[in-house]
Amino acid sequence: MVKQLEKMFYPLTVFMVFIVLIGVMNNMMFLLLFIPVFLLLGFIKKYTISYRLTYKGVTTKAKIIKYESYLNFDEDLATSRRGDVKKEVLIMEFTTKNNKVIKGQPLKYDINVPELEDKDFEYPYNEKFIAFRDFNPVGQEYEIIYDKKRPTVFTFKEFLGKHLNVYLNLIFILGAIIIAAFTYIIIEYSIVGTIASLFN
Question: What pLDDT band is residue 106 in, cutting at 50, 70 and 90?
Answer without folding.
Answer: very high
